[in-house]
Amino acid sequence: MRSSPRSGRRRLPALALLAAAVLALPQAAAAAPATAQADTLGAQAALSGRYFGAAVAAGRLGDSTYAGIVDREFSSVTAENEMKWDTLEPSRGSFNFGPGDRIADRALARGQKVRGHTLVWHSQLPGWVNSTRDANTLRTVMNNHITTVMNHYRGKIHSWDVVNEAFADGGSGGLRGSVFRDVLGDGFLEEAFRTARQADPSAKLCYNDYNIENWTDAKTQGVYRMVRDFKARGVPIDCVGLQSHFGTGGPPASFQTTISSFAALGVDVQLTELDIEGASQAAYSSAVRACMNVARCTGITVWGVRDSDSWRTGQNPLLFDNGGNKKPAYHSVMSVLGGA
Ligand code: G3I
Q1: Residue 201: in which H helix or E strand, if any?
Q2: Which residues have C-beta within 8 Å of that of residue 3, sequence separation ≥ 6?
Q3: Which of 73, 165, 191, 213 is catalytic?
Q4: Beta-carbon count within 10 A of 31 CB
Q5: Could you tell which of 80, 103, 277 is best to mutate to test the pocket of ligand 1, judged by most ligand atoms within 8 Å of the CB?
Q6: What is the distance between the alpha carbons of residues 212 and 244, in angstroms, rounded to a whole number?
Q7: Dihedral sign, CA of 294, 204, 165, 313?
Q8: What is the pLDDT of residues 14-46, one digit of tens each?
Q9: Burial class (CB in 10 A: 0-12, 13-18, 19+), 202
Q10: What is the pTM of this model?
């Protein structure tokens, strides 16, 4: 991290201008004065109290270009697949923490934070869970998974996606069908969050989903109603993860409204899986600006490092090209974060 080089003679007027600008800005943006500059995404985001992370795949960490970017640029990592149920508990009661530990321990040793992704999700779920149709058994299985995994990583994870993608696409605004919903009913969500709080009180507990970025969508409204209900009844929830997988146009016009509306319920908001088809500078700028403009939007994670690492094959949605070079969108993001 370095300060902007400025002569003493220019400093006074610059500070006066800055003071005026700060008064006119919302709280979060005010925490990142335009003169503050850092050399990396993580360091730059830290100047406004935010993290900037990436999804990391254990199998790629042997690639020195990949690992070099991860270590240099990001202040938080999310295991792209290694903390999902099918990897962590492939058969009942038999836990495999190796790949997840590799990512978490490596990050923590370098001073990076770790996001936990994800405890309860209908996908990447082993067959033995899907075929558990007795409610008491499934409740025990779900709670044991949450408790065992969170105990293992206790104190190491800043935020856990406790439940992922539980809401249905389309106009219903309700939950999607899944073994959890079908066998346990809608109450599985509340039970998962209550169990999670007991297992690791130091971790922020998030609900994470995609296509909840456009404020008026039924799915967004359904999640909003759930969070409002949880807060009203004292069900523990600390954050909402907006995955933010966008097409070429980037975020919808209402994106900041969505972020600020969730934040107004008393939860943090995190952009948890940001990637944008084509990675235009305007689209990335607009996504990051929306977060910067809301004090409780506390961090951003991009879903991969280089385009060649992305799950969206051929769409070039990330901040680094296949050779590991910074793309134009990288510089736009730095600029919106308040950097060079
Ligand atoms: O590990 C096996 C490998 O052994 C096998 O040879 C290979 C053959 O297909 O598959 C490998 O597993 C793949 C795994 O990624 C690891 O590379 C799976 O097939 C593949 O389905 C899996 O895709 C992941 C996807 O979630 C699964 O739903 C993506 O990497 C991952 O980026 C993606 O991430 C999700 C978030 O968790 C939730 N939100 C949406 C996001 C994008 O889909």
Answers
A1: none
A2: 35, 36, 37
A3: 165
A4: 17
A5: 80
A6: 8
A7: positive
A8: 334 334 443 444 444 444 444 568 999 999 999
A9: exposed
A10: 0.91
